[in-house]
């Protein structure tokens, strides 16, 4: 089919078609903008509602904490925790003397007798006094107590050995030893497995 219309009319029809296409695109673009606006508005409203809801939950939780005296309870828990630490600290230094004396007695060499145990100011140790028949036996007390196989002391030092030459007793020598407990000493209350529940 041959189009015999003048060129001006042909151009008018062509521009009319282009205008219709542009109108459609403009309407679609406007609808898209309206849709994005609706989505953005819904998002902002939803965000505002969530913020209000969370603020309300936070306020009610803070009110509950104040009502339930949360800070007071927390302070009581801290006090109990501090008391428990103090108990553990005290028990870690408590010595089970009934078992300790048996072990020290078993470690004493022949011809000696244990005469005294004194807790000294040095933490984790004590002073031991024993009588012996002679100087060599008195020094053997220190060797036996310092022996790691006994699992009693990590270190035992002789403080003094006094022997009386004209004494009428069977044990004329007195030895004083300062000893420090081993860290894994089974005679401390906190390390004793039988003492734990």
Strand content: 15-25%
CATH topology of the largest domain: Gyrase A, domain 2
Give the overall shape, derived from the CA principal axes: rod-shaped
- Straight-line N-to-C gap: 108 Å
H/I helix tally: 4
Sheet with most strands: strand arrangement: 1-2-4-3
Query: Stretches where pLDDT falls below 50 for ≥5 residues?
Result: 190-197
Outline the structure in words:
There is one protein chain. Helices cover 55% and strands 18% of the residues. It folds into two domains: 1-68; 94-195, 2-Layer Sandwich (Gyrase A, domain 2). The termini are far apart. The chain has a four-stranded antiparallel β-sheet, covered by helices on one side. It is α+β, with helices and mostly antiparallel strands and 197 residues long.
Give the topology.
Layout: H1 7-67, H2 70-93, H3 97-107, E1 112-119, E2 125-132, H4 135-146, E3 153-163, E4 173-181
Antiparallel strand pairs: 1-2, 2-4, 3-4
Could you provide a short overview of the structure?
With 197 residues, the protein is an alpha+beta fold. It has four helices and four strands, in the order H-H-H-E-E-H-E-E. The protein folds into two domains: 1-68; 94-195, General secretion pathway protein M, EpsM (Gyrase A, domain 2, 2-Layer Sandwich), CATH 3.30.1360.
Q: What are the defining features of this structure?
A:
single chain, 197 residues, alpha+beta, Gyrase A, domain 2, 2 domains, 4 helices, disordered C terminus
């Amino acid at each position: 089919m041959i189009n015999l219309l003048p060129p001006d009319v042909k151009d008018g029809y062509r521009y009319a078609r282009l205008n219709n296409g542009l109108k459609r695109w403009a309407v679609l673009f406007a609808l898209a903008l309206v849709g994005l606006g609706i989505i953005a508005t819904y998002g902002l409203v939803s965000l505002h509602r969530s913020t209000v809801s969370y603020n309300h939950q936070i306020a009610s939780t803070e009110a509950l904490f104040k009502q339930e005296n949360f800070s007071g309870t927390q302070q009581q828990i801290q006090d109990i925790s501090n008391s428990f630490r103090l108990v553990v600290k005290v028990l870690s230094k408590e010595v089970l003397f009934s078992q300790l004396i048996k072990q020290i007695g078993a470690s004493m060499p022949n011809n000696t007798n244990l005469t005294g145990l004194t807790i000294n100011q040095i933490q984790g140790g004590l002073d031991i006094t024993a009588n012996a028949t002679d100087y060599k036996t008195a020094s053997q007390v220190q060797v036996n107590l310092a022996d790691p196989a006994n699992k009693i002391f990590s270190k035992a030092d002789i403080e003094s050995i006094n022997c009386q030459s004209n004494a009428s007793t069977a044990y004329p020598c007195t030895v004083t030893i300062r000893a420090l407990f081993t860290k894994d000493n089974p005679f401390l209350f906190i390390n004793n497995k039988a003492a734990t529940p």
